[in-house]
Amino acid sequence: MQGSPEPRPLDFARGLPRKQETSDTHMATPTPRPSTSNGPVTFQRQGDVCVVTIDNPPVNALGVDVRRGLAAAIDAAEADSGAKAVLIVGAGRNFIAGADIREFGQAPQQPSLPEVCLKIENCTKPVIAAIHGAALGGGLEIALSAHYRLAAPTAKLGLPEVALGLLPGSGGTQRAPRLIGVKPALELMLSGRHAGAKEALSLGLVDRLGTEADARAEGLAYAQERVAANAPVRRTREATGLADKDAARAALDAARADTAKKSRGLFSPMKIIEAVEGALTLPFDEGMALERQLFLQCIDSPQRAGLIHAFFAEREVLKAPETRSATPRALTSAGIVGGGTMGAGIAVAMLDAGLPVTMVERDDTQLARGRANVEKVYDGLIAKGRMTPEAKAAVMARFSGSTSYDAFANVDIVVEAVFEEMGVKKAVFAELDRVCKKGAVLATNTSYLDIDEIAASISRPQDVVGLHFFSPANIMKLLEIVVPAKVSADVVATGFELAKKLKKVPVRAGVCDGFIGNRILAVYRQAADHMMEDGASPYDIDAAVRNFGYPMGPFQVSDLAGGDIGWATRKRKAATRDPQARYVQVADRICERGWFGQKTQRGYYLYPEGARTGVPDPEVLAIIDAERVRAGITPRTFTEEEIMRRYMAAMVNEGANVVLQRIALRPLDVDVTFLYGYGFPRHRGGPMKYADTVGLPKVLADIREFAKEDPIFWKPSPLLVELVERGADFASLNQSE
Ligand code: 3HC
Ligand code: NAI
Q: Can you tell me the distance from the alpha carbon of 83 to that of 85, in angstroms, rounded to the nearest whole number?
């Protein structure tokens, strides 16, 4: 036992309610002895079973204290002649969620998790793991090191390390294939998905299914049964899942080919395959050494840092000030104004979340079109076999339409998605002010318009909020919650609550032209246009952006969204544009020809016969050449690296301005916006995390260099300058508000 073997009293200071959840009131037999606590791990003999409980809120992550406590508990059980078996359980809602992710990248502390797993596996008394809730990553690896496993109906088991840029690093790559075979083990590790209790049983990951949620009681009964049967210890490293070498080899080859195709640029998936191959070709101890070596390579990879940043950032965005200070209003029914692209998508998102939805349109024809837009989504699912006609009918029973605003008299929330014109929006809000019940949340999906002005135009500005969905609104995860000056905190909190219901990722944004995402997009899109006029083709730029990790480049996105939308915005803003600022006219020349992208079979690319993937268009290149001549520019070449330096510098600089002006609360809010709304590669963590990785002095030096050519466009953000002067980074601003 590590430290003192003296039993210490149970630690009542922490997590009392959780102690009650797993208290002995569930136990029929036998009388428990006093518990011994070792920080977050307590052990207590019940009859001849030593029950080891991990109680490390919120999710029983395997931090250093848990590892020490587990090791000590196994030592104590070995030393206790009265203990004939060991039961490991988790307190609270989970067994163990895995290694403590916050420890990665810090100095390692002993004992390591592989050592703890080995100690469990080497225990001379049968060890039983009783799993409820999450047994993920290192949590499942602890369970795999036990000799017998029981899963409660709530259990979810998985090896999701790949999502963090890692591989299972505590024997998972060696034990899982031996237990369940290479193919299913690889599938779990490469997908990172969670398997439910029944599936875990059929895979052979667990030996028995529990019948109720009380894993501790059922685990204890299972352990007592093992003792009564004189069951031997049964070590996973001796399991026979690798007996069929040919099948194992074929599974490895198939996974390698598939991963090469699908995991473009990701580091850890191939390392996972390499480690699992070690299970096939090496003795266990050598396989473990290989796994450790590959795990450390993953730990050192910048992708690990980016992915773990993304993991925490997407949880931090939920902690906006209003979600802490206010209680959301009721959310049991919704109204949508407008049944176009966005209104229909938002209606589907609401219906999918189980809400009844009322849509209001201008007239019967538009209403029928709005309804058809909604039905089209479900018909698509039916065509793909992902929905039955009966299920569609059940969903559509919750949908109603009207051409009268009076239909909104009783709804809890209305989202407006009509044309992007201030006059039209204000007229709609006047109607909402007239008909909606007191306390209804009145939301606008505007992309750019001043929500303070919309709010000020009605009698209840405290109820007006921006809910900026992204297209297609039923699919895209991002929801910008735009907070005007007069809105009440509980309305903002209701926006976050709605996001949760819709399974979206909410980011709090302030009011400005384009909020967080579109405002920053407008700037780096201009940087791309400048490069296009200076000599890079749109195809070069798209390729560089894709090779950086985006699914599409900016010109492909423009073709997908439709060039006419941006064209209309540019025309609207022409009068207020700084005449000194550089303005690239290529997009206007393309739109003037009626080439709006995919929907017209032509934009920056050609889309022969409605193809979704475009091919380069020599006529577009000729237009660009002509524009260069008109602007007096001699084209030069750009390397991919130069393209990305400019693209990212523009994005990061505007990101810094957005944080400085409190449009985004923290740099991480910008990161999450780009990860979930703009296809930013997750393994880079988001633009602000990327800037920290590159180094802010380098980004600032780039901007200053580019400013020599165009000082109006390239103005270093005062926040960036200040951080560089202080030797600080964006991460230092990421503490929760
Ligand atoms: N380490 C540290 N903190 C963790 C954590 C972990 N493994 N898992 C969750 N947390 C934290 C979250 O950051 C959050 O903190 P906050 O309240 O301060 O924001 C809190 O626990 C609750 O998490 P969720 O909000 O995600 O809670 P849910 O109930 O929605 O989900 C869960 C629970 C399914 C366990 C989910 O948290 C999860 O998927 N966690 C990560 C699991 C994982 O990736 N495990 C593998 C880790 S790597 C590993 O084990 C390496 C090993 O092979 C060596
Ligand atoms: P759209 O043109 O497809 O749909 C607008 C709908 O509003 C039409 O069906 C129209 O009949 C209806 N409408 C107009 N005036 C109305 C009124 N007074 N009462 C009731 N219905 C009325 O437009 P889209 O693309 O759906 O955009 C809607 C809003 O969403 C705009 O504010 C836009 O800026 C915003 N937005 C658009 C995104 C996109 O990718 N299209 C993304 C995010 C926000």
A: 6
Does 15 score more than 50 pLDDT? no
Fold of 518-733: N-(1-d-carboxylethyl)-l-norvaline Dehydrogenase; domain 2 (1.10.1040)
Active-site residue, 161 included:
yes
Residues 208 and 220: beta-carbon distance below 8 Å: no
> Of the given ranges (493-497, 546-550, 570-574), which has the lowest mean pLDDT?
570-574
**Could you report the per-residue pLDDT of 633-677, keeping only the tens digit for each?**
999 999 999 999 999 999 999 999 999 999 999 999 999 999 999
Ligand 1: centre distance to CA 58 (Å):
8
What φ, ψ does residue 576 adopt, rounded to 5°?
-100, 0
Distances (CA, A) of 541 to 264, 301, 319, 402, 524: 18, 26, 37, 46, 12
CATH architecture of the domain 331-496+505-512 equals 3-Layer(aba) Sandwich (3.40)
- How many CB atoms lie under 10 A from the CB of residue 340? 15
Q: What is the pLDDT of residues 582-603, one digit of tens each?
A: 999 999 999 999 999 999 999 9
**Contact at 8 Å (CB) between 233 and 127?**
yes
- The fourth-level CATH superfamily of domain 24-299 is 2-enoyl-CoA Hydratase; Chain A, domain 1 (3.90.226.10)
Ligand nearest to the CA of 142: 1
Cα of 149 from ligand 2 centre, angstroms:
54
CA of 404 to the centre of ligand 2 (A): 17
Report which residue type is found at 143. Answer: A
The answer, yes or no, to whether any atom of ligand 1 lies below 6 A from the CB of 616, is: no
Of these residues, 161, 291, 314, 627, which one is catalytic?
Answer: 161
User: What Å distances lie between residue 349 and 340, 355, 425, 475, CA to CA?
Assistant: 14, 9, 22, 8
Average pLDDT over residues 121-126: 98
List beta partners, residue 42: 37, 53
Ligand 1 in contact with 169 (CB < 6 A)? Answer: yes
Task: Report whether residue 102 contacts ligand 1, using a CB cutoff of 6 Å.
Answer: yes
Assess whether the C-beta atom of 160 lies below 6 angstroms from ligand 1.
Answer: yes
Calculate how far, in angstroms, residue 229's C-alpha sits from the geometric centre of ligand 2: 69
Q: Give CA–CA dist 455/273, Å, rounded.
A: 56
The sheet carrying 413-416 orders its strands as 399-402, 357-360, 334-337, 413-416, 441-444, 464-469, 478-483, 505-510
* Structural tokens at position 122: 């080497």
Q: Is the pTM of this model over 0.90?
A: yes
CA distances to 263, 303, 505, 552 from 681, in Å: 12, 10, 16, 11
Q: Identify which of 18, 54, 56, 59 to mutate to test ligand 1's pocket (most ligand atoms within 8 A of the CB).
A: 59
- Closest-approaching ligand to the CA atom of 56: 1
* CA 272 – ligand 1 centroid, Å: 21
The closest residue, in CA terms, to atom 24 on ligand 1 is: 315
Residue tagged active-site, from 141, 199, 627, 654:
141
CA gyration radius for the chain?
29
Q: Where are the domains of the chain?
A: 24-299, 331-496+505-512, 518-733
Question: What's at 207, amino acid-wise?
Answer: D
Asked if the model's pLDDT at residue 23 lies above 80, the reply is: no
